[in-house]
Amino acid sequence: MMNQILFAGVIGLFLTLVGTPLLIKLLARKGYGQYIRDDGPREHASKRGTPTMGGIAFILATVAAYFLSKVISGEPPRYSGVLVLGLMVGMGLVGFLDDYIKIVKRRSLGLRAKAKMAGQLIVGIAFAVLSLQFADSRGNTPASTKLSFITDFGWTIGPVLFVVWALFMILAMSNGVNLTDGLDGLATGASVLVFGAYTFIGVWQFQESCANAGTLTNPGACYEVRDPLDLAVVSSALMGACLGFLWWNTSPAKIFMGDTGSLALGGVLAGLAICSRTELLLAILGGLFVLITMSVVIQVGSFRLTGKRVFRMAPLQHHFELKGWSEVLVVVRFWIIQGICVIVGLGLFYAGWAADK
After folding, report:
1. Does some domain include residue 160?
2. Which of 89, 273, 304, 309 yields a CA-CA distance of 20 to 30 A from 346?
3. Is 320 inside a domain boundary?
4. Is residue 184 part of a domain?
5. Full domain range(s) for residue 124
6. How many domains does the chain contain in total?
7. What is the pLDDT of residues 44-84, one digit of tens each?
8. Cα(157)–Cα(177) distance, rounded to whole angstroms?
């Protein structure tokens, strides 16, 4: 059963390593290049025209890797994995429409704000409602109406508030990844680290599942998660696919993920957190995305309240560029910060399990 995790990661990696350059050629031939802001760091002007919408590569690779790993291992798809993949594809489609209108139709703002929000709401609500269906023999649905940190804790918020909470998580993470995707490889590399963490969490939850309580040394520390192994397969496929995409997306980038990729990654991160019962832990595991989002909130809030800016430019990565850091230096140091966030998050996850022993 566990070999499907390895299959998914390897297939995802292979497909994006081979498929991304084909996508680059296709997008370049069509002339679908990136628009660059004039008020950003001057070094970014050279990126104008670089093919974008590269998220197509790792979205398709992830879906293919998941289902191929199921075929090879002879294991059926599970509801949790399919729902999380559906959320990724749906959010990616909203991002694709935004990119397409922005680049192909030459309308610089892309989708109208209301249309973009409506698309995200439709996808998010569909995921949230469906994730409360499909109970297994133990009564577990892919998601839970209880809030969670490293497992569910006491408060049941009910289905309506759960949908609102799920929407907030999906929109917040999508926005966070979108804001982080401003430097070559930054969002992709940070996402690889978080997907690695969720692969570990899925495997651990599967080994310590309450469904196996009779064979566990400590049944009191088990996890009530519907399909933990399937979530690990999805995470592994994403990790491999993003790693292969990073080969082409790292500095100097041959392709950008665009909103197609950033909305998809943000959505799938939220979906993994919801279905693995680690909702609040995601704020630590994805700490870099939270930090960069907060830099924008602080910058906008400060300017509206006092007329002064805290940073030279927001999001945060551009502040350090304008201070004289090279793009590669910013990216690597931010990856280190993200790595620390993942280590702290996994440490808290393990400590929660150990404390219940």
Report:
1. yes
2. 89
3. no
4. yes
5. 3-278
6. 1
7. 555 666 888 999 999 999 999 999 999 999 999 999 999 99
8. 27
**pTM exceeding 0.85:** yes
Distance of CA 20 to the CA centre of its chain: 19
Identify each DSSP E strand in 55-214 by its residue range.
Answer: 146-148, 152-156
> Which of 195, 197, 242, 182 has its CA nearest to residue 55?
242
The answer to whether 190 and 338 are in contact (CB under 8 A) is yes
d(Cα 321, Cα 199) in Å, to the nearest integer? 33
- Name 146's bridge partners: 156
From residue 39, alpha-carbon distances to 45, 265, 266, 313, 314 in Å are 10, 27, 26, 9, 11
Q: What is the dihedral of CA 183, 185, 190, 196, to 10 degrees?
A: 170
- Give the angle subtended at the CA of 98 by the CAs of 94 and 103, to the nearest 5°: 145
Tell me the average pLDDT across 212-241: 88
Best CA proximity match to 187, nearest among 198, 201, 176: 176
The one-letter amino acid code at 57 reads: A
Instruction: Report the chain's C-alpha Rg in angstroms.
Output: 20
Residue 353 covered by a domain: no
Contact of 235 with 69, CB cutoff 8 Å: no
Neighbouring CB atoms inside 10 A of 209's CB total: 21
